Amino acid sequence: MNPLISVASIIAASLAVGFAFIGPGVGQGTAAGQVVEGITRQSEVKGKVRGTLLLSLDFMEALTILHHRHHKPVRCL
Protein backbone atom coordinates (compact mmCIF):
# COMPACT_ATOMS: atom_id res chain seq x y z
CA MET A 1 0.00 0.00 0.00
CA ASN A 2 1.14 3.52 -0.71
CA PRO A 3 2.73 5.13 2.41
CA LEU A 4 0.91 8.39 1.71
CA ILE A 5 -2.43 6.58 1.87
CA SER A 6 -1.41 4.92 5.14
CA VAL A 7 -0.48 8.24 6.73
CA ALA A 8 -3.65 9.90 5.45
CA SER A 9 -5.75 7.04 6.84
CA ILE A 10 -4.17 7.36 10.28
CA ILE A 11 -4.68 11.13 10.34
CA ALA A 12 -8.30 10.79 9.15
CA ALA A 13 -9.08 8.16 11.78
CA SER A 14 -7.52 10.28 14.52
CA LEU A 15 -9.52 13.33 13.50
CA ALA A 16 -12.74 11.31 13.31
CA VAL A 17 -12.31 9.96 16.83
CA GLY A 18 -11.37 13.40 18.14
CA PHE A 19 -14.40 15.06 16.58
CA ALA A 20 -16.66 12.26 17.81
CA PHE A 21 -15.75 13.06 21.41
CA ILE A 22 -16.66 16.75 21.06
CA GLY A 23 -20.42 16.07 21.13
CA PRO A 24 -20.50 14.18 24.43
CA GLY A 25 -18.13 16.74 25.95
CA VAL A 26 -20.45 19.59 25.04
CA GLY A 27 -23.42 17.60 26.32
CA GLN A 28 -21.75 16.95 29.66
CA GLY A 29 -20.81 20.60 30.02
CA THR A 30 -24.37 21.69 29.27
CA ALA A 31 -25.78 19.19 31.77
CA ALA A 32 -23.39 20.33 34.50
CA GLY A 33 -24.24 23.97 33.83
CA GLN A 34 -27.96 23.28 34.10
CA VAL A 35 -27.44 21.44 37.38
CA VAL A 36 -25.49 24.34 38.85
CA GLU A 37 -28.27 26.67 37.74
CA GLY A 38 -30.90 24.43 39.33
CA ILE A 39 -28.98 24.15 42.60
CA THR A 40 -28.65 27.93 42.85
CA ARG A 41 -32.42 28.26 42.42
CA GLN A 42 -33.39 25.50 44.85
CA SER A 43 -30.56 24.63 47.19
CA GLU A 44 -32.70 22.19 49.20
CA VAL A 45 -32.61 19.60 46.39
CA LYS A 46 -28.84 19.76 46.04
CA GLY A 47 -28.15 16.14 47.01
CA LYS A 48 -30.81 14.62 44.78
CA VAL A 49 -29.88 16.72 41.75
CA ARG A 50 -26.17 16.09 42.21
CA GLY A 51 -26.70 12.32 42.39
CA THR A 52 -28.80 12.40 39.22
CA LEU A 53 -26.11 14.47 37.46
CA LEU A 54 -23.33 12.05 38.39
CA LEU A 55 -25.38 9.09 37.19
CA SER A 56 -26.19 10.87 33.93
CA LEU A 57 -22.56 11.84 33.33
CA ASP A 58 -21.51 8.24 33.95
CA PHE A 59 -23.98 7.00 31.34
CA MET A 60 -22.86 9.63 28.81
CA GLU A 61 -19.21 8.74 29.30
CA ALA A 62 -19.83 4.98 29.18
CA LEU A 63 -21.84 5.21 25.98
CA THR A 64 -19.17 7.35 24.35
CA ILE A 65 -16.38 4.92 25.27
CA LEU A 66 -18.38 1.80 24.35
CA HIS A 67 -19.41 3.26 21.01
CA HIS A 68 -15.80 3.86 20.02
CA ARG A 69 -14.55 0.50 21.29
CA HIS A 70 -16.91 -1.45 19.04
CA HIS A 71 -15.74 0.13 15.80
CA LYS A 72 -13.08 -1.75 13.91
CA PRO A 73 -9.71 -0.01 13.78
CA VAL A 74 -8.24 1.18 10.51
CA ARG A 75 -5.62 -1.25 9.28
CA CYS A 76 -2.69 0.32 7.48
CA LEU A 77 -0.52 -2.33 5.86
Concise synopsis of the structure shown:
81% of the residues lie in helices and 0% in strands. The protein has 3 helices and no strands. Helix 2 packs antiparallel against helix 3.
Secondary structure: elements and pairs:
Blueprint: H1 3-20, H2 22-41, H3 46-69
What report would you give on this structure?
There is one protein chain. With 77 residues, this protein is an all-alpha fold. 81% of the residues lie in helices and 0% in strands. The protein is built from 3 helices and no strands. Helix 2 packs antiparallel against helix 3. This is ATP synthase subunit C, plastid. Residues 11-66 form the V-ATPase proteolipid subunit C-like domain. GO terms for molecular function: lipid binding; proton transmembrane transporter activity. It comes from Erythroxylum novogranatense.
Class of secondary structure makeup: mainly alpha
Order of helices and strands: HHH
Count of DSSP-assigned helices: 3
Helix content: over 70%
Q: Using the alpha-carbon principal axes, give the shape.
A: elongated
Got a strand count?
A: 0
Strand content: under 5%
Average residue-wise pLDDT: 83
Rounded radius of gyration (Å): 19 Å
Q: Kindly, what is the distance between the CA atoms of the first and last residues, rounded to a whole number of angstroms?
A: 6 Å
Low-confidence stretches: none
- Describe the largest sheet: none
